[in-house]
Amino acid sequence: MNLHVPSIRHNDCEELWALCKAGGDPLRLNVLRALANDSFGVLELAQIFATGQSGMSHHLKVLSQARLVATRREGNAIFYRRALPHTEQQGGKLHAALLEEVDNLTLPADVQARISAVHGQRAAASQDFFSRIAEKFRAQQDLIAGLPQYRDSVLALLDKLSFSPAATALEVGPGDGSFLPDLARRFHQVTALDNSPAMLELARQVCERESLNNVSLILADALHDAQIQVDCVVVNMVLHHFAAPAEALKQLATLLQPGASLLVTELCSHNQAWAREACGDLWLGFEQDDLAHWATAAGLVPGESLYIGLRNGFQLQVRHFQRPAGDTHHR
Do the beta carbons of residue 243 and residue 120 sit within 8 Å? Predict the structure, then answer.
């Protein structure tokens, strides 16, 4: 008796084969875990996993062929991030299931330590930049997007939220303090946190000149040292200076009272690599979906969004996220 076995065309299973191959190596699975809420260059990943650059490049090529990672070129460097699964396409459900399982992995302690070291290197570079350019901060900001280009949009969103007369606000990274007078007129008490003494001195001069008696300036790291909760946190053009923005949003969410708002003004994703050196940017903007995904992971609910096209080709996004009013166990 002859049984006819139907042939399977190579093209019909190519996506599945690539996914199975990519997921068949422990190091590649850990790379996917490390990329869950972050983006790294090949040299950073080689440092994190204590392996050679050529070996890491090979693993990233396999992950890329399986469409598990996406790439973005920034100058001469290529940065890798996880690609979102498309469950309606071939292999999409396996892609989603693989990432779900990967997210249950715990990275080895030495890998976590080296990730922290990479974040520390990024943060040190950012802080060094601001200590050097404090006196010409506004000119540097104006190279891409100065406060006048987004102030009205942020204020319109703030006013639409109708905060009570007793509401409190926190500005993280106030820069030279230019936005503090606007906050001081809208909130009973305003706190400004910055980890750069030079930048905080510029903000102090603004408070003194404008007689802002309801503004407190604190030299602190908002992600590790802040011990307050407020009705509104404002982060204007700061998130791209954080080493790990997704983790930063989680920490910022803990500073919100139940029902409170987080306002983030940021660049949309761009490829102008000169901004790294000229403006101290660690990230070249953000995809709109990334910010929403990270905020949701932080327990926040996405609200209204505004988008502003700039003459120099950059685009700004002003995003509102809210901590649910019934969330009393967020911290």
Answer: yes
